Amino acid sequence: MAEISTKPYLIRALYEWCADSGFTPQLLVAVDGRTRVPPGFVKDGQIVLNISAGATRNLTLDNDWIQFSSRFGGVSHELSIPVDRVMAIFARENGQGLHFEPVDTPEPPGQTPPPAPGDASVLPKGKPSLKVVK
Fold first, then answer.
1. Which ranges of the sequence are coiled-coil (predicted)?
2. Which of 8, 62, 65, 69 is exposed most, by the fewest CB atoms within 10 A?
3. Which CATH number characterizes residue 68's domain?
4. Residue at 49 is within a domain
């Protein structure tokens, strides 16, 4: 039987501690091809995300994926973060939290994030495109 990682459990515990303490939980994420975040906010291959209840909608912290929707520059985005790409979870106010050793795992072919909660559509394949709606 494969060993179950403690990382998702520690992330959930620190998230709850931040919320109970009145702190803002933040994630430091190493972005890769499986990580779905707004690319304009990624710096040096990393992004810091506010995952507080007031900053997210439909937040799920499961054992493999962290998913939620959030606004960046006034535009709503659906985010999907593989748990193995989380480098830290910490309180913005005091920096207390946990840092994890980065894991550079090869991306399994065809692995995509599961659909966001409440999203019944199938994830599109191929090159993304932008459609202007007036």
1. none
2. 62
3. 2.30.30.220
4. yes
Measured CA to CA, the distance from residue 76 to residue 55 in angstroms comes to 11
Predicted TM-score (pTM) of the model is: 0.76
C-alpha dist (Å) from residue 77 to 12, 67, 69: 22, 11, 5
What's the token pair of residue 91?
Answer: 């309180």
List the strands of the sheet with 57-61, edge to edge: 57-61, 65-72, 75-82
Averaged confidence pLDDT in the chain: 85
Residue 85: its pLDDT value, please?
95
* The pLDDT value given to residue 75: 94
Please say whether the beta carbons of 92 and 23 come within 8 A. yes
Confidence (pLDDT) at 8: 96
Structural domain harbouring 26: 7-99
d(CA 19, CA 59): 13
pLDDT at 104 over 70: no
Please report whether residue 63 resides in a domain. yes
